[in-house]
Amino acid sequence: xxxxxxxxxxxxxxxxxxxxxxxxxxxxxxxxxxxxxxxxxxxxxxxxxxxxxxxxxxxxxxxxxxxxxxxxxxxxxxxxx
Length: 81
Description:
Blueprint: E1 2-4, E2 11-13, E3 20-22, E4 29-31, H1 37-57, H2 66-80
Antiparallel strand pairs: 1-2, 3-4
């Protein structure tokens, strides 16, 4: 799950199942249950798209430019039309 610290706005991904996680940047405790559900759902949808990109292309997210992901997404949208 992607987390954004409410204090310092640092973004990171956690696989933790705990209720509270600590921000790696400022060490602020973040309650995962208090995150906005619509925001959490959007992050989940983005994560699904990124995993689909990785599966389709064989490239890892940290090894590509955002423009490559956008081009891939545009090609998927065009194929559906």
